[in-house]
Fold these 2 entries.
Entry 1:
Amino acid sequence: MDLIKQNRDCPVLYVVVPCYNEEEVLPETAKRMRAKLRGLIAEKKISPRSRIMFVNDGSRDRTWEMIETLAHADPLFAGVKLSRNRGHQNAVLAGLMTARGKCDCAISIDADLQDDINAIDGMVADFCAGSDIVYGVRSSRDTDTFFKRFTAEGYYHVMQRMGVELVFNHADYRLMSARALEALSSYREVNLFLRGIVPQIGYKTSTVTYARTERFAGESKYPLKKMLALAWDGITSFSLRPVSMLIGLGLLITGGSLIAGLVLLIIQLVTGSLTGTAAILFSIWLACGLILCGLGLTGEYIGKIYEEVKDRPRYFIEAVSLDPGIEKEDVSKAVPPSDEISESTQPEEQ
Ligand code: UDP
Ligand code: MG
């Protein structure tokens, strides 16, 4: 893979905004985002070729008509229309992949103005200072209901226990550089959980904190059912620990029943009064334990197949240190002796 060059001085920024039935907030969102980007362009912090890209995720209301009107009226706006509703994660990915190749960096942000657009300044500043991924992190959850806060924070802890790397209190408000977008494009999985994928990419990362407010207008498009589905996707796409837990439980039950069996045997030998019920119970527990172990073991292999099928990229090269005598253009073709590649650029042995 060629090393991607990205302009960190006055970069082209694409702001990707997924929209599903957002006609109520869209005019205000467009107005505020236009003011924000125009300001940044005037300050020469971003290029005049920057865009606000709305992704219509199969809305049933007038969202797409509004996006088209905006795009026709002002070149700052662009629109992408998905053929049908594919869900928030796919809409964000579609926008980012459309922006890929056209920009130096892209920011994904919800349409409902819950995420503070003033954090864009900090994200761009971090990008210019060398970060490839800048996570928008909520400083407070004061505006959330107790239920939402409790479930969201509990979820992060469960994910951590499961060994999944997540950024605490970060949703999908983030900046990604051109090369981070390129890296993201090599994840081909359909059970999309961007929050889990992005930390796997690597490169230099940083965070920008902001206070999350309430939805400006309209209703949440993320009912509990969709939230649970996303959470479940997160666990099952990134962790094989539930399967290992199955083996652990199986071993525990098998071990327990063997000890119980030993105790029963001693009772039988000493008193000769072992009841049939005890023997049957012992057999049932032992069989259950062994079956669980077998299921867990099979699961481990299925897990391995699952990982292979996902065909995730194994590494990304950040820099190559070469003999200065080699022409720059030849970098992608040159195969340097392994001792000339700095350690950090060596692909990890898998
Ligand atoms: N969204 C989407 N497709 C969907 C559901 C939601 O593109 O199927 C968008 C929605 O328009 C919004 C963002 O995803 O820009 C987040 O949705 P929402 O604000 O309703 O979620 P919440 O903040 O309540 O979790
Ligand atoms: Mg929202």
Note: Residues 202 and 316 are 8 Å apart (CA to CA).
Entry 2:
Amino acid sequence: MTTAADIAGSVRSGQCSAVDVATAHLDRIDQLDRSLHCFLSVDRSGALGEAELVDRAVAAGRDPGPLAGVPVALKDNLCTRGTPTTCASRILDGWVPPYDATVVELLRRAGAVVVGKTNMDEFAMGSSTEHSAFGPTCNPHDPSRVPGGSSGGSAAAVASGMAALALGSDTGGSIRQPAALCGVVGLKPTYGMVSRYGLVAFASSLDQIGPFATSVADAALMLEVIAGHDPRDSTSIPSSPAAVLARLSDGVQGVRVGVVDELVEGASAEVVSAVSSAAEALAKAGASVESTRIPACRLGLSAYYLLAPAEASSNLARYDGVRYGLRVDGPDVEAMNVATRTAGFGDEVKRRIMLGTFALSSGYYDAYYGQAQKARTVVLDAFAAAYERFDLLLGATAPTTAFPLGDRTADPMSMYLSDVFTIPSNLAGHPAVSVPWTTGGDGLPVAVQLLGPALAEPLVLRAASVVEASAPGVPPPCGDFLPSDGTRSALPRQAVGSGSDGLPREGPA
Ligand code: GLN
């Protein structure tokens, strides 16, 4: 399989041109995205222009950087100067940011080529990408299933080889859960490790940007490029991040791993069995593995669904018809505000704004928002106690494999439950990674999740590498998403097509 590291290696050494790599990926998007709908916008000429600059640098003997010529997709809540950033919402219709997010600047500086902006649940609220105002994304392993969410477009774009790497945001699981459902690696870094300047805010005390990749090493490579202090983000950690790649193959000899009951219970049988097999693999590699309980994890979901909507109701107050995007006129300013927000926001966003406004309202603040803050502290303390006994924790990422499109949209609670295992690390601000393990009986990816204390990315990813190496693995998506040699994508190759009806044909490669 061609990785981002392979692409960068070939481009840096002049073996392969960045323009050819970009063209191959853009062609693949042209062919496949009609069926999968991973992208909200594709900037063909922009991408080819960036790729040409990379090639020129190589020709002039300059090193374009560690991601030279690597095609990257960006979740559409990351600001990109001069190209639309919609957050999959009608309310941002026509808004074009006047600046790039810090992560976008860093990626370009490292030689990456941005191919487009990916689909997502509106304002990152959801777990299936079905709450996009522009229609859902399909799971490349089975187009009748969801890719997970909210960063479903990014996960599916990487899984189907339309981009070698992608960025998403994770407030309650929105990188890890879609990564699990699409069979790719997804990492939520420590809160503050990656600058959020230019990330459209959902719940500011939880939001974090992180990578999607087809391997742990590629996720580590991308993390090294995007991590670091940024004076433009007041929550950015002042110290420089530890090197991750250099120690990636150091193994887990002597590392203490706790398998957390609460991060597995209620999951389907195949998910439970993946977690035990991953635990065995870590033990075989020399880790001391023990099962443990962290009952406070059970508070996570309820606390999150008060705190995240409360913060969202405040963050989304800025979409008033005056400053950004859509305006629906009315006889006075208030009527214009109401008409704009009524037309511009989808149902799930409205539900969150109402929940959050209620939780913060006078008379209810202590009972709801205040209680949830206390529960968050209980979760933090419980993790702190666990990390006195363990270096890392292991659990499931998602309770089930990818569910059918439409299955959970009518029942918000069942949708919210998709993130029951991912939310605790957001509340704690800790890093966690989803690693593909195998495919379940339905042929869909099953993943496990590794969690560590703040700034433990080097160890978390080392253990993820061990898990990846021992995993039976997830075969790339069905036949027509791949070239016939089974590689996932990347270097220039013959174009592959979808069925004559424009829909992906199912079946093994
Ligand atoms: N699914 C969760 C929610 O709807 C998490 C979303 C996210 O991480 N952005 O809030």
Note: Residues 481-509 have pLDDT under 50 and may be disordered.
